[in-house]
Amino acid sequence: MKEHEKSSLEEFLLDIDILDKLSKWINEVNFFEITKTTNKELIHSNILAWLFNSNENHNLKDSVVRAFIQKVVKLNVDKNIMLNNFDVFMLDFDSFTVKREWKNIDIFMISEEHKTTISIENKIYAVEREDQTLDYRKKVESLYPNNDYKNLYIYLTREGEKASDEEYWLIADYPIIIEAINQAINKNINISSTVKVILENYVSSLRRNILMDNELVKICGEIYKKHKTALDLIYEYRPDNLSNISEYIMNFIEENALKYNLTFERKDNKKSIIRFTTKYIESIVPKINDNTFGWGNGKGLMYEIPLYSNNYSACYLVISNVSDEKCQNLYDLSKANHKKFNIANRSSSAKIWSRVFKSSTILEKEQIEESIDEIKDIINKKLQHLFEKEIPKLEEFIHLNLNE
Asked: Which strand (E) or helix (H) includes residue 332?
């Protein structure tokens, strides 16, 4: 450790009282913080589906869902919406059935009485896959055509991002959720203490983790400005789950490289993406002597296992050399057999970083947040299945069908 780094750490420790300013947040007892569920989209969708169901046991009736829909319609007044605020006012939300993951839509609400559907796609950290909202709208309209039903589509994100099917999907953000919940709490004076604690915990957790608590941001900024060197040093050397998981997977691949005919080099890897090839992959797309090419290693085709917080992990086969005829042929093969390759390729020809294969899930989003000791057995089992079943099956299919 350099002398100035050591003195910065000592200065920070002597000024530890500065952290008292954070006690308001540090000492807060919050159910969602304790259970580490704040960053899990599934949990948020479950909570919202519960709140949006006026017949649920929260006893808030339709106060949350009505306020939310009204605010969304008002925010998108410039769009051609099938429902206006008067229509929303006239809706009896008791007549709606609320469904989770109907046709993969996060929250789907339908009232046969009003001939109305409401589709809500909830994106907090994940991004929309290609044409996802368009596909969802087509699913709804195939069963509930516009000439018979009024269909409302809402794209809910942290900060009101636009959906790819922008013309039809209304934007909504989490500040609207907070406003609707607070409005419901204030309106329902007879709300039970249990429900009130849950909602207050939820709103507090949203402000802190999903949105930005301005007071918290200001205080943290002041502390960081004063002790930047020390805090940067602590952050750089902090242990984290993602690093531990990444290291464990790299060690597994390295130790089993001979067994599974893998080629693995540490320099091809980083914490968030693990890369390797197989002897067969290298035989059909050989490495070239140009380290400025591809991933900086002269390779045109590699397997990747991305590891990102708040996203599931799988293994992909990825093209970097679009000028290679075999890569183009492999892309065409994967496009023609997208179900077998577990991936849909929409472009007419391969592009750099095109994915041509996707394995089954290795780790779910929630598992990536667990400690390595809790998921070692899961990783072992999934990697064994990948190397003993999925990759050999894939490469056999490629061998039989690719013009080598």
From this structure: helix 325-336
Complete DSSP assignment for 16-70: GGGGGGGHHHHT---HHHHTT-TT-HHHHHHHHHHHH-TTSTT--TTHHHHHHHH
Q: Is 107 helix (H, G, I), strand (E, B) or coil?
A: strand
Closest CA to 358 of 345, 377, 371: 345
CA separation for the pair 394, 373 (Å, rounded):
31
Taking alpha carbons only, the member of 219, 218, 216 closest to residue 18 is 219
Q: What is the pLDDT of residues 151-182, one digit of tens each?
A: 999 999 887 888 888 889 999 998 899 999 99
Residues 6+ apart with CB under 8 A from 279: 261, 262, 263
pLDDT number for residue 213: 54
Check residue 110 and give its pLDDT: 96
Q: How many whole angstroms separate alpha carbon 265 and alpha carbon 275?
A: 8
In this structure, what DSSP letter does residue 386 have? I
Residues whose CB falls within 8 Å of the CB of residue 168, separated by 6 or more in sequence, listed in order = 133, 137, 153
Number of alpha carbons in the 13 Å side-chain half-sphere of residue 202 = 24
Alpha-carbon distance of 319 to 357, in angstroms, equals 10
Q: Which amino acid is at 286?
A: P
Question: 3-class SS at 121?
Answer: strand
Which residue in this structure is represented by tokens 């397997």?
303
DSSP label of 239: -
The closest alpha carbon to 83, from 122, 63, 91, 105, belongs to 91
Would you state the structure tokens that stand for residue 216, as one six-digit string?
């918290």
278/15 Cα distance (integer angstroms)? 53
- Of 319, 255, 315, whose CA–CA distance to 281 is shortest? 319
How many Cα atoms are found within 13 Å in the side-chain-facing hemisphere of 293?
16
Check the CA dihedral 222-209-159-84 and report its sign. Answer: negative
Quick one: pLDDT at residue 238?
Answer: 65
Question: Which residue from 217, 152, 206 is spatially nearest to 177, judged by alpha carbons?
Answer: 206
Amino acid identity, position 75 = L
Distance CA 366, CA 352 (A): 30
